Amino acid sequence: MKLGYLGPKGSFSEQAALKAEECSVLSEYHTIKDVIEAVEYGEIDEGIVPIENSTDGTINVTVDSLIFDSSLFIKKQLEISIEQNFLVKKNADVSKITKILSHPQGFAQCRKFLSENFPYAETIPTASTSDAARLVSESSENIAAIGLKNSADIYNLHLYKENIQDRNDNFTTFVVLSKKEMQPSVNGKKTSVAFSTENKPGQLYKILDIFFLWDLNLTKIVSRPMKNKTREYVFFVDLQGDNNDKDLLDALNMIKRKTYFFKFLGSYHVYDFRKK
Prior knowledge:
- This protein is an alpha/beta fold.
- The protein has 3 domains: about 1-80 and about 170-180, D-Maltodextrin-Binding Protein, domain 2 (3-Layer(aba) Sandwich), CATH 3.40.190; about 85-160, D-Maltodextrin-Binding Protein, domain 2 (3-Layer(aba) Sandwich); about 185-270, ACT domain (Alpha-Beta Plaits, 2-Layer Sandwich), CATH 3.30.70.260.
- It is built from 9 helices and 15 strands.
- The protein has helices spanning about 10-20, 30-40, 60-70, 105-110, 110-115, 130-140, 150-155, 205-215, 245-260; strands at about 1-5, 25-30, 45-55, 55-60, 75-80, 85-90, 100, 120-125, 145, 155-160, 170-180, 190-195, 220-225, 235-240, 260-275.
- The radius of gyration is 20 Å and the shape is elongated.
């Protein structure tokens, strides 16, 4: 079994991949999109990608890829605590740092630390936090990275400041993606679907009313712009329950009939690896 993740080594995605216990071989990729496409094209068996952060919200590239660009299913969900750290080159003069590298989520999760300590520093986005650490290690400039603690050891950097995230309960939700749809006997605890309604008054309300009538708990709804239609949206929805639940199946069948776009994205278990 080959499992792909957002690399390079030392990324939070690698940390999640090691906890997924899915594989015998790990393969790193440069972007989230690369991981998803590798699964789609059969280069790897499964991929693990971030889909949401508790501080900064939905990872849009993952949601959009699932809705519009792939035929993959969510097999498993993992929740991983995220502790961001400030990494610099050994013997660096921190007072003179004017550039900080990280994944955009890293910056978003550490806004308070950055505004209080480096209000004038340029923030440079990278493909992953571990990629930021690698670039700092290879640079001759006096720059810094935000990322995982063990990246300091991997890339021979100095761990200047630990746990700089805004919230101590900061965590990221990862999903394992597969081309194989989960079978009804799996008894997943969560189901994800995407749908779009006609652009008319009350259409979304009518769909949400179906969930209410079947007594289904809708735990998340995210709207994303339809790629080929201006000012129209697709709704990504998480529900409690699995595709063995007759009420859920009846509700989804009704929604299929009432929408012009519908996509089942999987029923799956949720595994909580957050620090308590």
